[in-house]
Amino acid sequence: MIAPEPPNAGQGAFHSLRQVCCSPPQLSGDTQAKRFADRLLPRGLWLCLFFAAIAIGVFASPHLSLRVGLALGAITTLAASTYCLLNFWRCREAHCIVSGTGWALLALFELAELGVGRSFIDRSEGLVFLIVLGLALGFEAVWRLRYGTKAVTGTGLRG
């Protein structure tokens, strides 16, 4: 005899997958600046298109002329950094503090390269972009294992 499944059978796995794949909920939009950031951050399909454009910019830049490639790399890296830093401010998603900060530094480096008219790392800025992404996702994985959440919160820091 087979026992009937409980009404929520199988939802535990979906809930766990959702925790791993989805951003933490946004913090309250209690200021005009936070509400502006919420309107500015792309969501849903726009977020997919945004990061597709970032990927195209990062990976196309070494195949363009030096100055155009460095400018495109700096613009796309700065756009990705801005998204992550705003997202961290609004959601506290762990990887965003690492990727946002790392990409901001990379964008400054790319702008410095553009200013002197040469690449100091043999047009490998896209590789550095990916290394920063890997470090950020690794940080988030360790954070989630340690604190059970992707959100960097005051309680997680004290825990």
Describe the 3D structure.
Residues 3-9 and 13-21 have low confidence and may be disordered. Helix 3 (44-60) packs antiparallel against helix 4 (66-91). This protein has one domain (42-158). It is globular and about 45 Å long. The protein is built from 7 helices and no strands. The chain has helices at residues 11-21, 32-40, 44-60, 66-91, 94-116, 125-147, 154-158. It is mainly α.
Total separate domains: 1
β-strand amount: under 5%
Structural class, by secondary structure, is mainly alpha
- The total of beta strands comes to 0
State the distance separating the first and last CA atoms.
46 Å
- Helical fraction: over 70%
User: Largest sheet, described in full?
Assistant: none
Average residue-wise pLDDT: 85
H-E order: HHHHHHH
Radius of gyration: 19 Å
Query: Could you list the spans in which at least 5 consecutive residues all have pLDDT below 50?
Result: 3-9, 13-21
Please tally the helical runs, counting DSSP H or I stretches of 4 or more residues.
Answer: 7
Shape field: globular
